[in-house]
Amino acid sequence: METLAIDYMLWHEGEYVVAQCLNVEISSFGETRDEAVGNLKDAVRLYLQDDDGIPTEEKLAHFRERTAFAFGHESLVS
Predict the structure, then answer these.
(1) Domain for residue 70, yes or no?
(2) With contact defined as beta carbons under 8 Å apart, do 63 and 47 qualify?
(3) 57 pLDDT above the threshold of 90
(4) pTM for the complete prediction?
């Protein structure tokens, strides 16, 4: 079994933590960070197993390509 690196970001939405995968358009949530990330991992596993007509190799390519992301937070005064 191949080990994949999942890039994700987390944020709070109400009482939940949302986990958004940055490799493919999949997200999940949970009551805690660990639960949200665990649920995201399960969702990605299901995506890779799903027979949706997209070849597995094409799906896996999103996890092999590494893209550098930069996130920032700035104040804007108008």
Answers:
(1) no
(2) no
(3) no
(4) 0.76
